[in-house]
């Protein structure tokens, strides 16, 4: 006599909900484009190009080589200031344009342009505009505002300016979406009780914006930390702007040491993860309110 199937077993044998098949293409793309390359990169980083090193030899070499591990500090010196400038600069602009108006559409359209151009085209334009013989230095000299040589390319400042130009629109659009999602009747109600505009911003808008600002900072940081074209075209890749991505490129395509390049990429991901986790932890430590602000 056949053993009856229990209720949990019947649940496991039941055909899945047809709606679940809608996420199958996205799941397959996620596995093929992200999960598999990550697992393969981790496995490759635990090998050595010549087959003589141990599993952690690439990581030990990275953190003992004075031409590699300082690239993390260089990258942080670029990513952290650009993130602060983009997010803190985007906040007042987005707050001023929180109400729907023709000015909001015009400014948003203008700020979308750098996003569509890309970092390479922005770097090429900056070489023409900020180079010693470019428009900007010539304008400063012509207006007698500055008489010495203006050096804004092939150094740290050129890369930082590029990160701000390419990252500010991204941060602005993120912050603007959070600001416009806050119910304006909350501020109007506070104003009827005598709250000043600063008090409204401090006690109503800012607490509701903390989660959004944190996410904007995380995404802006990750975007800036992976800087590569700007560091090569506008910086000094052999000196003050030798970021971690350049070290990974040199290991892969100049030394043909793909395990070492994979190890550097894993270190980059780990540093980004630590910084992002720190920002999220700080948000939870200083903010315990609702995670989103909506018009509901």
From TrEMBL:
One annotated Gene Ontology cellular component of this protein: plasma membrane
Can you give the residue ranges of the ABC transmembrane type-1 domain?
A: 72-279
Q: Where are the transmembrane segments?
A: 20-39, 78-97, 109-130, 156-179, 208-238, 258-280
* Family statement: Belongs to the binding-protein-dependent transport system permease family. CysTW subfamily.
Task: Show the InterPro entries listed in the entry.
Answer: MetI-like, MetI-like_sf
| Keyword annotations | Cell membrane, Membrane, Transmembrane, Transmembrane helix, Transport
- One Pfam family this sequence matches: BPD_transp_1
PROSITE patterns linked to this entry: ABC_TM1
Q: How does it sit in the membrane?
A: Multi-pass membrane protein
Where does this one sit in the cell? Cell membrane
Q: At the top level of its lineage, which domain of life is listed?
A: Bacteria
Which organism is the protein's source?
Pararobbsia silviterrae
GO biological process annotations for this chain's record?
transmembrane transport
> Upper lineage ranks?
Bacteria, Pseudomonadati, Pseudomonadota, Betaproteobacteria, Burkholderiales
The name of this protein is Sugar ABC transporter permease
